[in-house]
Amino acid sequence: MPTDIIDNFSVKRIGILDSDGKIDSSLLPPLTPDDLRTMYWWMNLSRTLNTKMLNLQKQGKLGTFASTIGQEGAQIALVYAAKDIKNAWYCPSFRETPALLLRGVPMESILRYWGGFESGSNIDKSLNVLPVCIPIGTQLNHAVGLGMSMNIKNEKGIVFAFVGDGGTSEGETSEAMNFAGVFKAPIVFFCQNNHYAISTSRDKQTASKTLAQKAIAFGFEGVQVDGNDVFAVYKVAKEAIENTLNGNGPILIEAETYRMDNHTTADDWKKYRSPEEVEVWSKKDPILRLKNYMISQGIWDDTKESHMLEDAQKKVDQAVQQYESTPKTKVEEIFDHVYATIPQHLAEQKEAYKKFWSEQ
């Protein structure tokens, strides 16, 4: 019998603004100067908050947390592209502070979460943001459940599911993508390939040339984008959103970026990567890249920069004050903010737990 080629595939990679400031104007999405300044503001607010959180953690005022330095551009561009969608849900892992900020989660709530307060998981229901998910990859199955429910109820909407490069090696991710492909769930899987799963480098995780191509096995498209280029991420996100909302099922976006900091505050990146490697990526910083572009276009200057950073610091300091005045968590609150309606077995456990501690 003859040998047939069933299918061939290719993966697109999109880049518009490189680290040297060169831009492909033919690919530019319709972003105004105000759009650029707005995204730049949120990226800087996130980094200002992140820096403060690092200091608080060193002072023992926060627990272990995951820094987002270097990944702000990818997250902000994605969420900004979806800002006008009414029925959008967000399923974060543990490194989505910029995305949560732009979506509307208050800074003091983010601080409370990482400070160990259960109220930090009590997110305003109108935001459609699920609680931070620590077990790697499990949030993707939550996302698929949301997307499948939209289809069952004939609701037009979209789900954004965040995962890292390490998360794509988890069985949970394969299960989620398989179900999403079969049932055409309206999901944008957003993979931030920051090149390291704690200390395991990208090339030791998988032999796949890209992470985007993993989507093809599950029957939908995967695309790779320069994750430090807000123009490219915005453009790809806009196209993915339109495609998904039109009933064409899920898509996987691999945003190639870099984790400039430790995996968490319990990590030491110097043990598994070189300062030279980090220096190379520091020149591709998404904040620096966008700033230089705006200056070249005459829509940004040092005075605006100074005022912006001063305002960002003031807002962060105000949030920290609110965080530090948070009432002590009641022990029974560990059962709250997980289910919309607490199941009977957990309600019974909650009462038993309250009784136990009241007798101590």
Care to give the gist of this entry?
This protein is α/β, with parallel strands linked by helices and 360 residues long.
Description:
It is a single chain. With 360 residues, this protein is an alpha/beta fold. The protein has a single domain (13-21, 29-329), classed as Thiamin diphosphate (ThDP)-binding fold, Pyr/PP domains (Rossmann fold, 3-Layer(aba) Sandwich). 44% of the residues lie in helices and 10% in strands. It has helices at 33-58, 72-81, 97-103, 107-114, 138-152, 171-182, 202-205, 230-248, 275-282, 286-296, 302-324, 344-358; strands spanning 13-14, 88-91, 158-164, 187-193, 196-197, 200-201, 221-226, 251-256. It has a 6-stranded parallel beta sheet, sandwiched between helices. A two-stranded antiparallel ribbon has the order 5-6. Strand 5 (196-197) and strand 6 form a beta hairpin. The chain is globular, with a radius of gyration of 21 Å. It starts with 12 loop residues before the first strand and ends with a helix. The model has no long low-confidence stretch (mean pLDDT 95).
End-to-end separation? 77 Å
Q: Helical amount among residues, as a percent range?
A: 40-55%
Q: What is the count of β-strands?
A: 8
Q: What is the name of the CATH topology?
A: Rossmann fold
Mean pLDDT rating: 95
Overall tally of structural domains: 1
Number of helices: 12
Strand order of the largest sheet: 1-7-8-4-3-2
CATH superfamily: Thiamin diphosphate (ThDP)-binding fold, Pyr/PP domains
CATH secondary-structure class: Alpha Beta
Strand residue content: 5-15%
- N-to-C series of helices and strands: EHHEHHHEHEEEHEHEHHHH
**Residue windows where pLDDT falls under 50 for at least 5 positions:** none
Secondary structural class: alpha/beta
Radius of gyration: 21 Å
